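user: can you give me the structure for this one chain? tokens are fine.
assistant: on it. calling the predictor now.
[tool input]
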Amino acid sequence: MKFYQKIFRLPSFPQGNHIITDRVLAEIPEIRRIRIGMLQVFIQHTSASLTINENADPDVPRDLARLQDHWAPENFPYAHTMEGRDDMPAHGKASLMGASLQIPVGNGRLQMGIWQGIYLCEHRLHAEGRKLVLTLWGTEETE
């Protein structure tokens, strides 16, 4: 069993849902050696989140953003407002969406469906780049 871990920073993204599958894979090329294993993707922030969803139709990320705004609207009477109107809604959305993903790996590839992609859900209006921790473990082809 082999273990790999990488921490990397994504560039700044505007508020919304952004497919980052290719960026994740570029940061952990060791995945190609894993015969059977798992990749965990963890975001080190409380106002952005991760999810897996459809990667083909551009309406999906827009509709996800509309749903997220419905769950945690900016005009709700939040007590936590010191960091701006978008901060507490971002925390709420991140709590509902989640901070980590666990994806099976097989024969050197993520075992996601053909229409699935990894999304960064940026909930702030003006956020700096986000840090992700990638932890990969499994048996390598030579084991």
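assistant: here you go. The chain has one domain: 9-132. Residues 9-132 form a domain with the Jelly Rolls fold (CATH 2.60.120.460).
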